[in-house]
Write a structure and sequence with these properties.
This protein is α+β, with helices and mostly antiparallel strands and 175 residues long. The chain contains six helices and five strands, in the order αβαββαββααα. The strands form two sheets. Strands 2-3-5 form a three-stranded antiparallel β-sheet. The chain has a two-stranded antiparallel ribbon with strand order 1-4. It binds iron/sulfur cluster (2 copies).
Length: 175
């Protein structure tokens, strides 16, 4: 490239808008197929650790005791391999950049135990649960009375079909 051409380009760029933007205050439209950041669908994760074992840069950590899944986003190279190995298909690539940060620490996601989630749900419905036995208690004597009266009716019908002497004996035995 000749000195004249180079000088012309340099001079021309003085009057053009810069190609760069002041990220994160400004962003550019994201191109098609951009690899942004890994996301997890936490309720479906079973903490199997396949993603941790398969990650090429060791940026995923799965802690079964603490029930956490974490990723070091500054170490992830967005290769997407962890997405393909997850047996529950709970990892995906969000095509947006992760938020800008000034500290280097992993993103930690708490994986809620499904049983724990059910207990929490049950604790939020104490009134309905408490009401159930009361209603049941009130319904029980009525059901017993109906049953007894049905049995009495059947017995009376049977006694009516018996020989009068036998019927008397049965009545005596029942009284
Ligand atoms: S995208 Fe690649 S580097 Fe990033 S967490 Fe998944 S396997 Fe690791
Ligand atoms: S592979 Fe999937 S299910 Fe297993 S720990 Fe990773 S995200 Fe969870």
């Amino acid at each position: 490239m000749g000195a004249f051409k180079l000088g012309k380009m340099t001079f021309g760029s003085l009057f053009k808008e810069p190609e760069t933007v002041k990220y994160p205050f400004e962003t550019k439209p994201q191109p098609m197929g951009l690899k942004g950041h890994i996301e997890i669908d936490a309720p479906n994760c079973i903490l199997c650790g396949m993603c941790e074992r398969s990650c090429a840069t060791n940026c995923i950590a799965v802690d079964k005791q603490e029930r956490t899944w974490s990723i070091d986003r500054l170490q992830c190279v967005q290769c997407g391999y962890c997405i393909t190995v997850c047996p529950k298909k709970c990892l995906s690539m969000n095509p947006n950049y992760a938020p800008a940060t000034t500290v280097h620490e992993p993103d930690v996601v708490k994986i809620t135990d499904k049983e724990e989630a059910n207990v929490e749900k049950a604790e939020n419905e104490p009134i309905e649960k408490a009401a159930e036995p009361q209603e049941q208690k009130a319904a029980e004597p009525a059901a017993e009375e109906a049953k007894a009266s049905a049995i009495d009716g059947q017995l009376a019908a049977l006694i009516g079909l018996m020989d009068p002497d036998k019927a008397e004996k049965v009545k005596d035995a029942l009284s």
